[in-house]
Design a protein that fits this description.
Blueprint lengths: L1 H8 L5 H54 L15 H5 L1 E2 L6 E2 L21 E4 L16 E4 L15
Antiparallel strand pairs: 1-2, 3-4
Protein name: Type II secretion system protein G
Keywords: Membrane, Transmembrane, Transmembrane helix
InterPro entries: N_methyl_site (IPR012902), Pilin-like (IPR045584)
């Protein structure tokens, strides 16, 4: 009967064992935090790269349609006057149909979330130099206005 009492009393964990387990879990969580931040940065950079590719492709397609005479050139350079023109649609001169080059303007993932998507980008006009982009009457290129640096060491503004 004494042996049975001993078996029932020794079946749990001690307070020290529980504290050791919690300390180990805390150390593991603290060690994984920088990896989670790095992964978040990587995902935002991929989104930025994809958004720049989409917008620049739409800008090139717009200029190509102007050169073909399919749409009227709203500016001297043949590039659109703003980013909204890519998503709002342009009426084709030959076909008479509305041409949409973007479903919607993608947003800069590093910009303020309260801004509309087309205002999150820095705009470069056709007659603006590449090393000092300035907005103008048309949109020749876009860039991120973030002051951060990518994981590759290149400032996000230069992507």
């Amino acid at each position: 009967m004494i042996a049975a009492a001993r078996r029932t009393n020794g079946g749990g964990y001690t307070l020290i064992e529980m504290l050791v387990v919690l300390a180990i879990l805390g150390i593991l969580a603290a060690a994984s935090w920088p990896l989670a931040e790095l992964n978040g940065q990587r995902v935002r950079e991929q989104q930025l790269d994809r958004a720049l590719w989409q917008i620049r492709g739409a800008l090139d397609q717009y200029k190509h349609l102007v050169d073909l005479g399919e749409i009227k050139a709203p500016t001297e350079s043949g590039y659109p006057p703003d980013l909204a023109a890519l998503a709002n649609g342009i009426t084709g001169l030959k076909s008479g149909t509305t041409i949409f080059l973007l479903r919607r303007v993608p947003r800069d993932p590093f910009a303020d979330g309260a801004l509309p998507a087309d205002q999150t980008w820095g705009l470069r006009a056709y007659n603006s130099p590449g090393d000092k982009p300035e907005a103008g009457k048309d949109v020749y290129d876009v860039y991120s206005q973030s002051s951060g640096t990518g994981l590759n060491g290149v400032p996000l503004r230069q992507w």
